[in-house]
Design brief:
Helix content: 40-55%
Order of helices and strands: EHEHEHEHEHEHHEHEHH
CATH topology: TIM Barrel
Distance between the termini: 13 Å
Number of strands: 8
Radius of gyration: 18 Å
Strand order of the largest sheet: 1-2-3-4-5-6-7-8
Number of domains: 1
Strand content: 15-25%
Structural class: alpha/beta
Number of helices: 10
Length: about 270
Amino acid sequence: MKRFTYGLCDWSVREKGMELCRLAGEHQLDCLQLGVGEEVLDGRGLGSGDLIREYKKGADLYGIEIISLSPQFVDQYSFTAPKNREEEQVAVELVEKTIGLCKTFGCKSFLLPVLGKNDIFDGTSFHRAVEYIRRFSSQAAGHRIETYLELNQGVEGVHNLLDAVDNPMVKIFFDSQNLFALNGTSMARYFTEIKELVGGVHLKDGIGSMLSGSLLGEGNSGFYKTAKAIIESKYSGSILIESVYHKAGVCRNGTESELLARDAATLHKVFD
């Protein structure tokens, strides 16, 4: 059995459905992580049975697993610090819809972003985060789905949150650049300090505060040091490319497929 499962986030490229499954298979990736936007609440996107069936057909055809889903709301909605009840309600509905879709796709985990507008800013947002993470993770656990949190918290903040949530089915989804871009954190050291809590990994690179501004290994976020820390740990599981290939700093260097091919080659070279 392979130690690592390689994959791609669907927000990295413009392709969706069958074409996305084909693209992943073409570049020797094993799985996909899909974003769930608010359009699902109107029966569009992954709220459409047609698109769900297309993904399932594409996954079977190209040998791809839909490994995880994630609500895409961190720039618009929040349950940790909502402006009003309506904003909070939309955020909650999106998370609960995502959990339901994970059951539909047979996912073993879902990614819950607790950052952006949905970050933990103070004591109030911390307690709201704990309350909702307990609620969502309990719902997910009822379907044997683990909850992975993506956070912009330091090591102490990570431990404080997981201690308060107190659910062994809640883990951390490590991102190889976010905290470096935010405050210059050494991502290799950060991974090493939380490695026992990690359930999944996002890989991207960039220069300074520009998220996903470079291909893997071409930025200054310490990609190769972080990769070494992952390899030298006991972590096994998903490693997902989260480069965004239509960003201006990247797209001038080739088509999305060409850029993905270069990142996938780096992924295999470093982790195989």
